[in-house]
Amino acid sequence: MPRKPKSNLSHSSTRARTAKVARSQESEEQTQTQKTQARRALDAERHASQRASDTFTQTETRWALDAERHASQRASETYTQTPTRQTLDAERHAFQRASETFTQTQARQTLDAERHASQRAAETVEQTQTRRVLDAERHGQLIAAETDEDSQRRRLLNAERQAERRPRGSVGHESMYIAEGSTIFLFEITDN
């Protein structure tokens, strides 16, 4: 004997049950996402208050632990994860730099200079050579990718930096920069 076909009622009930299950799963995912975001916000506030109350020694200890943790994470990541992390880090740093005040920028630059100086002081000859090669490659890539305006700005900054490093011959020593097109002219005037 042939089976009796299911009625539309049972068919719609099956669809309704499937839709209900799908909605409940979606709401669970949304709830989980909201909980995660709330937890992260609370964690960020808690960490900020802890960092604000840290002593200098506690801050240094936290930095050292963070550096070890980040180094182990970087060591365990794959070649495909590395560029993704670097891109995310660059975006995060750019956002942070864009939102900081002039005073915060100066403080960050001072801390960065001190950190870099201490790192350079502690590195071996081989590490120094490797760093210089990597820096040269990175600078070459940046120079190759810059626009004409970026190039002109970089050249002007480099000329100013070089002039500051140059010993002053006399009290009446002056430097003047004139940018014309992609060429920067440096005029030095002395009272000799």
Automatic annotation (TrEMBL):
Enumerate composition-biased segments (Polar residues).
7-16, 50-61, 73-87
Record's superkingdom?
Eukaryota
Positions of region (Disordered) = 1-106
Q: What is this protein called?
A: Uncharacterized protein
